[in-house]
């Protein structure tokens, strides 16, 4: 990314974590956050899915909240996710959920077991019961090894048709991580990366990140695996479309995933062309961290906030 974009992102994320800023925005910013968040309840998220499905767009639900440090909120989050899956199934839809392991107890030892492992198994088992799917979101770099370890175990236990995970293109380690998973024939969501990571572990230059992103997608497709191309970068999207045609990759082997509230025109356009398109639909009361990362992604997003405040 340019020096300006890099500086903007660093400043935006740093400001967002200031306690006073978080308190003010959390109290007054919900009306603005609704641009990126479907609502506070599972019912709100289900209504968003139904609206998007009218345009041929599928949904990927994400209960917001992360980095909890005690068992009680981790178990509460797990129950909310399970309840949301039940409600989606009752509405005649197939559950498709993304989960942050830090929100359900990753790293907390209970009775000699990792609470995140225990709760993730409960969630994936419920998804399998409904013929659904769970995606293990990838968070900041210290959690990568544990997330990939659990992902491998869950695929071996429940099958790759019920659980997938995320790889972040900007991490230096990611291409090797992708190759190390090939034996699982994994369903992977490829993203550029949204956390503020040091140069020692993550690329900082936009062109370098974009090139790494393309390599990851192309190698994953050529290995015969299912790929979730998660980006709003229309240049990358069009390049993937050309790659698919040039290499005979069937449309059934990949999908485009975009964020709720962002480029819905592009989402409808891709769906109309026969591509599988899935919208990442966040919901819940703990929306601030997700919202601040959306604002930090592009200077254009902060203009939206300023217009709302005015």
Automatic annotation (TrEMBL):
<dbReference type="GO" id="GO:0010133">
    <property type="term" value="P:L-proline catabolic process to L-glutamate"/>
</dbReference>
<dbReference type="InterPro" id="IPR015659">
    <property type="entry name" value="Proline_oxidase"/>
</dbReference>
<keyword id="KW-0285">Flavoprotein</keyword>
<dbReference type="GO" id="GO:0004657">
    <property type="term" value="F:proline dehydrogenase activity"/>
</dbReference>
<feature type="binding site">
    <location>
        <position position="293"/>
    </location>
    <ligand>
        <name>substrate</name>
    </ligand>
</feature>
<feature type="binding site">
    <location>
        <position position="100"/>
    </location>
    <ligand>
        <name>substrate</name>
    </ligand>
</feature>
<dbReference type="InterPro" id="IPR002872">
    <property type="entry name" value="Proline_DH_dom"/>
</dbReference>
<feature type="binding site">
    <location>
        <position position="294"/>
    </location>
    <ligand>
        <name>substrate</name>
    </ligand>
</feature>
<comment type="pathway">
    <text>Amino-acid degradation; L-proline degradation into L-glutamate; L-glutamate from L-proline: step 1/2.</text>
</comment>
<keyword id="KW-0274">FAD</keyword>
<feature type="binding site">
    <location>
        <begin position="192"/>
        <end position="194"/>
    </location>
    <ligand>
        <name>FAD</name>
    </ligand>
</feature>
<dbReference type="GO" id="GO:0000166">
    <property type="term" value="F:nucleotide binding"/>
</dbReference>
<dbReference type="Pfam" id="PF01619">
    <property type="entry name" value="Pro_dh"/>
</dbReference>
<keyword id="KW-0560">Oxidoreductase</keyword>
<keyword id="KW-0642">Proline metabolism</keyword>
<feature type="binding site">
    <location>
        <position position="138"/>
    </location>
    <ligand>
        <name>FAD</name>
    </ligand>
</feature>
<keyword id="KW-0547">Nucleotide-binding</keyword>
<feature type="binding site">
    <location>
        <position position="206"/>
    </location>
    <ligand>
        <name>FAD</name>
    </ligand>
</feature>
<feature type="binding site">
    <location>
        <begin position="231"/>
        <end position="232"/>
    </location>
    <ligand>
        <name>FAD</name>
    </ligand>
</feature>
<protein>
    <recommendedName>
        <fullName>proline dehydrogenase</fullName>
        <ecNumber>1.5.5.2</ecNumber>
    </recommendedName>
</protein>
<feature type="domain" description="Proline dehydrogenase">
    <location>
        <begin position="46"/>
        <end position="304"/>
    </location>
</feature>
<dbReference type="InterPro" id="IPR008219">
    <property type="entry name" value="PRODH_bac_arc"/>
</dbReference>
<dbReference type="InterPro" id="IPR029041">
    <property type="entry name" value="FAD-linked_oxidoreductase-like"/>
</dbReference>
<feature type="binding site">
    <location>
        <position position="168"/>
    </location>
    <ligand>
        <name>FAD</name>
    </ligand>
</feature>
